[in-house]
Amino acid sequence: MNKSFSKFSILRFAFYIILFSQICAQNNPPEINNISVIVDAQNSLVMFNYDLFDIEQDTMFVTLKISSDNGETYIYPADSVVGDVGYPILSGNQKQILWYYDPDSLNNLKAKIVADDLNEIDISDIVATVDSLNLINDLTFVEGIRNRTTGFDHLEETKNYIENQFIQNDLQVNRHEFAYGNYGAANIIGRLPGQTNEEVVFILDGHFDTVTNSPGADDNGSGLVGMLEAMRVLASYNFKHTIRFIGFDLEELGMVGSNRYVSEAIPTYEQIEGVFNFEMIGYYSDEPNSQTFPAGFNILFPEAYDSVAAQDFRGNYITNIANENSNSLKTHFDNNANVYVPELRVISIAVSGNGEIAPDLRRSDHSPFWDAGYNALFITDGGNFRNPNYHSLSDTIGTLNFNFMSNVVKATVATVATLADIIHCGVGVSDYFNISFPPVSISNSLTLDRFSLTQNFPNPFNSSTIISYSLPNTNYVTLKIFDIMGREIQTLVNKSQDTGTYSVNFNAGELSSGTYFSVLKVGNISITKKMLFIQ
Fold it and tell me: CB 3.0–4.6 Å: which of 40, 73, 85, 160 could bond 446 by disulfide?
């Protein structure tokens, strides 16, 4: 008995050792704590003190972002920044960032400090978390007539369901409401803000309404729940850029919801780089001749037609459709699907213009984005050209293939995560602070002479570049070049210099193409600029 217990104890101990080693092997994101803010209005200066800790002692890239709208966005200009910001920054307490602002009167500002340890996140690990059980559970709720005249109650329940899923995953949530006759229509929007460049935006959408007589499991319950599952997966991570998740209303009446969104609800500061429109992604058939095409398809898209014909017209693939302007987006999707979901068969189509030559390729919420000049993909299982249950009472959950649907979501998650630039970072947010104008005298105000480091020119550069900087008084100066791993590449200046403006030539020589950093240090304050070298 003691011997058995001893064996059990050893096995249990070994299990905990393995588990502990796996946990330790995971790289932890940096931590930012104890942010304090001091405003020196006399010198148009704000000082941010913060503690920075990275358990692996990685070298970090630190960014300061300012919000002037109660923390909804962090896009207020904060260009004149020096101190423990940029790269390379190491762990330590009482780090300082100094922001020289343009004199103004601003209330309820907030600061966000982002520390990126530059560790790569494995996209395969993210893709693996897509769960078909979530798709089934969501669609079990969503299935049912969702129409303003014949299924109003369930339509409203579905809106609330989408909204609650966004809230549960800590997104910024709002309704874009508009009237359609006596019906109060609403697009449901969840926003995952980018941490360092949130003006750049990617959208993943699916419409939630149905025609009058269909429970709409595939059209478009599949697209809606696919968007929700992608949202759950992506919301667990940080990205440089913003991702919006949208449930569009009234698609079945001619893309009413998406048309209204494009024409009146896109914030002026947003730069939409890509839209991924899920329109029916759940019907799969390995039966010969289960896939048909509209008249003339073989003439317009012979490669796609021949690829399907080679497999006896089986409906065993997802279609990835781009207009002329969206070809690069299409290529990103194809490449990510091939790398991360090789079992998913993708047939890609590039249509000229905005698809006017092929009206069947405009029949969903991507087309208003095409017409407005935005890059967008139409991701679909083929609709009525494959699914015999299209717009009928038999469009039910039991007719769908959830493994296929999961794979479509996985390919899209991989593409969005890559394009939105996933980052391994820690984030700290300050309390509110105010800037008063005109400047008032503040006891114990800070005084710090200005100095500046300009962006190298040209940038990007392919051999050499000029780096300029200014000194307001005599001081000891160092100007060094670092690579993205924090290794010092070259010292350009290391001496005392008088007041004035200086320019230094940096020759990249035999360096590899990539990102480098110029770091100007005067006393205990430094300024960092990012440079791109292309051979």
Answer: 40
